[in-house]
Amino acid sequence: MPKLTRAAEQRALGALDRFTIELPSWGFANTGTRFGKFLQDAAAFTLDEKLHDAGLVHRLTGACPKVAVHVLWDFEDPSDASSGKRTAKLAAKHGVRIGSINPNLFQDQQYSRGSFCSPFPDVRAAAMQHALDSVAIGKSSGSKALTMWLADGTNYPGQDSIRRRYRDLARAYEKLGETMRKDWRSAQLLVEYKPFEPAFYHTDVPDWGTALLLCQRAGKNAKVLVDTGHHLPGCNIEQIVAILLEEGRLGGFHFNDRKYADDDLTIGSIDPYAVFRIFNEIAQFEFDTKKAPGSARIEYMVDQSHNLKPKLEAMVQTVCEAQKLFAKSHLVDREKLARARKKGDIVGAEVLLKDAFETDVTKTLATWRKARGLTADPLQELRKSGEIRRLARERKKLHGDLPGASGGYA
């Protein structure tokens, strides 16, 4: 096992101080796939319960002060901007605040042919109005980011004009970016991409290149959001991260893990080294550019569907794994790495990364948590607390045997 030096540990502790990861409200509700849901007794049904659960994860880990919300699932009236203030107040009650705002442009029946890319002008107008309403809600809730993921695409060749759809899409992002610069200047517009599903012939925002083009059209406040599950097999995600960093267009992440496609598994459950390599590129960028740590303003967010694991356990497990891998990425001796690269020492350079990845940081994490009055092992603390069983009893008594929760994947 590689030895952890004092200098490396101090770098890791400093990194943990500035690392926060946003939780998704829908990750605490009953969710599933297009084939159905498997219900959990302790799943959250209401926004208040979702925010309670997010607050519990934050109290255990000390790393999750923000909660991402879905406008259609989490607000009483998606067209009423004042609901943002009420939601922010509710979040504060549970010790968290509102994170990214997620419009929903894929659930209503009118979006069967697309939203911003729909062939029907009235549908495109409705989609834009919902996006603008989401901007108003975001501003009133104190959020700093609007995350745009579209399910737009086609299933069959000839179904629609790919170029026409892109033109309308670009115009929509131009308008959205302009509106945000005028009405919500402190916020970022985050553009997400996905190569396939639910569309299976072509997806209108299929890759980071298309997302970057849209950001360039939308303006300087628009950046690319990288979902770690939204790539074709074999894709080098850290290369995408490095290029977007170089271009000043990396806005954030939706973290999950995958074996085959967009599997939404807990982070690091399949390939923890892949997440380490992503964090390593960010740490390297800060070292190379001499930028203040965290100055790149990257939003780290969880986007997972815990269909079988207990939701609270899975979320705590994810956050702890993310903290571990983030800390490890800051163990790399950048000075030694620079010298190895300058000499063309391929093996030496790789060993520096592998040594950092293989170093045990359990005690470092425990030290960081102890300094903040947190439990040394949040997951074990949750498992032995009986809190999940208590919530299951309480929510079953309150909601009965209702089929599913408010919000979440169908």
Question: Could you explain how this protein is built, in words?
Answer:
By secondary structure, the protein is of the alpha/beta class. It has a single domain, classed as Divalent-metal-dependent TIM barrel enzymes (TIM Barrel, Alpha-Beta Barrel). It is built from 15 helices and twelve strands. The protein has helices spanning 6-18, 47-61, 71-74, 83-93, 121-141, 162-183, 208-218, 237-246, 272-289, 311-329, 334-343, 346-358, 362-371, 378-385, 387-399; strands spanning 23-24, 32-33, 36-37, 66-70, 97-102, 145-148, 153-154, 188-192, 202-203, 222-227, 250-255, 299-302. Strands 6-8-10-11-12 form a five-stranded parallel β-sheet. The longest helix is centred in the middle third of the chain and has 22 residues, at 162-183. It is globular. Residues 404-410 have low confidence and may be disordered.
